[in-house]
Amino acid sequence: MDPVKRASAPEIEVQFMGPETVERKVAQFRNIYRDAFTTPPWDEPAVYAARFVRQLKEISKAPGFRCVAAFKETGGMVGFALGYPPQAHQDLLAQLVEALGTQQANHLLPDSFYLAELAVIGSHQRRGVGSRLHEALLRESGSEKALATVREDTPGFDFFMAHGWEVTASIAEFYHPGQEMAPWLPAVLITRMNPGD
What we know:
The protein starts with 12 loop residues before the first strand and ends with a strand.
C-alpha cells in the first residue's frame, strides 16, 4: 500500500498545445522544468532548464510533435508532457537503435512515439496531474508503441512502471536529445504497447 496520501486535482484542465502556443508559453515550460527537476531526487543544475528551452524550441517544429499541458482554474500552467516520433531526432534515434539492436529496433521504432518529457511542479505532484498528462499525451500520439528513457533510481521509473511500461533495454550512457552536458548514468529504455487504449 502506498504510504503517501494522494490528493486529487479536479480543478486541473489538460489542454493540447501546438508549436505556436508552446513558443508563446516557453517561459512557463522553463519554470515548470526548473521546479520539477532542480530539486531532489533529480538535482539537475539550473542551467539544464535553459538547455531544455533550446531543445523545446527545436523539437516543437518536428513532424509528429505532440504536447499537452495542465492548467489550474486560474490559468497558471502546472505541468506538461511532450514527445515526438524518434525519427524526428537523429541523435535519439541512433541511441535507441544501438540499445535495441537492429532486429528489435526494426520492430519497435517504426510508427512509435517517444515520450520525451513529463514534468509537474512540486505543489501539484502526487495529485494525479502527471497521470492525466501521461494518458492524454499517449492518446494524442495515435501510436501503437510508446518509448521513453528514464533513470531507474528515480520516482519517474516507479511512475512509468505503475502505468504499464516495461523495461526493454539498458543504456549505459544515455544523452538526452540536445544535451551537450554529462549523460545520465545509466538509463533504461522502456516501452508501452497500445498506449492510447
